[in-house]
């Protein structure tokens, strides 16, 4: 897998789970992934530290591609490509 510049990734949908504790961000990601087509990218905003392990693990478990995370202005942006 090649390195992706996450700051320039084109996202198709955003799930804003800032202010939500576990499992809120994961639930928002699950709802949000259904709003994008296969091959498109969803970004999940979260300021819950558990999301840093939850989103990559969920992505792998259900067969999507976790692209990575950017930390900005006190929260994280997680990027997931829908694979199925």
Automatic annotation (TrEMBL):
GO terms for molecular function: transferase activity. Belongs to the sulfur carrier protein TusA family. Keywords: Transferase. InterPro entries: TusA-like (IPR001455), TusA-like_sf (IPR036868). The keyword Plastid does not apply. This is Sulfurtransferase TusA family protein. The keyword Transferase applies. It holds the Pfam family TusA. CDD domains: SirA_YedF_YeeD. Residues 15-75 form the UPF0033 domain. Signal peptide: none annotated.
